[in-house]
Amino acid sequence: MGFFAKRTFKSQIDEKTLVLISLYFFQPLLIVWGLTKAPINYEFVLSPLFFLLSMFVSLFIMLIYSKAIFKDKSDNTIFLATALIGNTGNLGIPLGIALFGVESVPYTSIINIANIFFMYTISVYFFAREKFAFLESVKAIFRIPVIWFAVFALLLNYYEIPINKHIYPALEMGAYTSLVIQLFIFGVYLYSVEVKTMPWRLSLHISFVKHILLPIIAIIIIVNFTSFSPMVAGILFMELFMPLAVNNVNFSVLYNVKPTAVAATILVSSVIFVLLLYFYIEIMNMFFN
After folding, report:
1. How does pLDDT run across 45-70, given as a tens digit for each residue?
2. Cα 127 to chain center, whole Å?
């Protein structure tokens, strides 16, 4: 019996298995760990709001010219639904630790929650508006464990309920395990993209929005309308220039909107992100130090 169970498990395990393990076990631990590491303050509350403000201003600009660029309805849908959804969890949290230390985790975690809300409302709307009921799609956000664990962690933080010293090390180990699994999943999805089928026009327009337009708007908003500390301002800017999220592929599969093309845009965005990362860091040093 054990032999057959082992063979069945081995034959069925794939990247979706890792996604489920990460989504239902390790990401909730990461969120609780991240959102309880620092007390709630002005910057903690407002950083995700200014993150969303930057996203909505960019989306308004995109809506003005998107139909003039994309005559194909599916390409227009992909452009509006995916171009602003960054990899704030898979890459944003680990990169924040690398650039700013573990002190960044509360801020990258709460910004990641804001990104999830944008993804499951605005992004889902553009994917689902012609094929599925919008309200049914939005209800899916409340089935994500991360959302409920985030509420739980924020309540612990707000009421200053301490975490037992024997539980905290396990929570921290689970959080770091989540970071490793998320990066592994990201690599698995990128590996599946075939370069010869790349939709270059769509990919480059999306990358322009993600890596040029959105960061410029972010700088304007952060410099002129916030009084964040250099670290929090840098974290906010960093989360906005993250490459496209892998979840974009999941939505394109769910709504049957050119999933291969969406996967290709993620690859292009990731390559451009690597090429521009040095300049992004220099911009952070210039504006937020």
Report:
1. 999 999 999 999 999 999 999 989 99
2. 17
Type of residue numbered 132: F
Q: Which stretches in the chain have pLDDT values below 70? A: 1-16, 130-134, 137-138, 140-141, 182, 185-186, 189-190, 192-193
> Per the confidence metrics, is the pTM higher than 0.85?
no
Q: 220-233: buried (b, 16+ CB within 10 Å) or exposed (e) per residue?
A: ebbeeebebeebbb
**Half-sphere exposure of 36 toward its Cβ, with a 13 Å CA cutoff?**
25
Inter-residue contact 251 to 95 (CB < 8 Å): no
Measured over the CA atoms of residue 244, residue 250, residue 252 and residue 253, the dihedral's sign is: positive
Residue 283, CA distances (Å) to 101, 135, 150, 279, 286 in order: 19, 40, 31, 6, 5
Q: Is the CB of residue 154 less than 8 Å from the CB of residue 35? A: yes
Q: Are 249 and 262 in contact (CB under 8 A)?
A: yes
Write the DSSP symbol of residue 257. Answer: S
Burial class (CB in 10 A: 0-12, 13-18, 19+), 152: middle
